[in-house]
Amino acid sequence: MCLILFSYRSHPGYPLILAANRDEFYERPTAQASFWKEAPNMLAGRDLQDGGTWLGVTKSGRMAAITNYRNPRALKEGAPSRGALVSGFLRGDEPPGEYIRRIRPDAGRYNGFNLLLGDGSGLFYFSNTTNVFCEISPGIHGISNHLLDTPWPKVKRGIYLLDGLIARHEDPQPDEIFHILADPSRPDDRDLPDTGVGLEWERVLSSIFIQSEGYGTRSSSFLLAGREGDVKFIERSFSSGPGDHDTVQFEFRVQTGAHFSPPD
Hints:
Blueprint (H helix, E strand, L loop, with lengths): L2 E6 L7 E10 L4 E7 L2 E9 L7 E4 L4 E6 L14 H8 L5 H8 L9 E7 L2 E6 L4 E4 L3 E5 L9 H16 L5 H8 L17 H6 L10 E11 L4 E9 L6 E9 L11
Antiparallel strand pairs: 1-2, 1-10, 2-11, 3-4, 4-5, 5-6, 6-7, 7-8, 8-9, 11-12, 12-13
């Protein structure tokens, strides 16, 4: 996952509204979101190369998502799959804080990541690049390939668009969310970050929706979690661009008391 935009406890009807894009090489084998055969409580896409996932939810009221931290100079060859951190949380029953404390001592074995975990106890963030672990405050937030709320142009634009959508509509519609996630606009070169990949790649990676030769946005996801435990999850997957896409949609109610945020 390379961009996560989310509203947490800032909408009167929905404690969590999440919109996310996963960017990856087109050739990397991937399965669309579904309930896993070996974990029928868990809804997530699957990386068929390493077996993990980038975003998922469960019928017991757990949510997890991850983005990579972009720093090619610190890349570790042979590091374990970061996607296993997401599926590991979703398949377990530890509260987010306990899960983070358990994985924290070995987090340096992985390449850089930002991990977002939630259940009925709250929503939490952990980055192994800075060892930062915190509970998310109410508001609208964004994570790309740096740290939580780093003001990269795509993060700032995504937060602005999501904030405007939530302010205008009592019930955010999927097409409006996916319109945000399909934004191909690029900022001026002077506003680009320098992450060590060169100017041309900084340009390519700077848009909310990425499209290039061999690499781009592979899926866009929308998660809507209501106060009564109703969950809507929609994923659009792409083979090479924003035109043709496959869509899957799921709706369910989480177990009583197991919502994605604590009560006010």
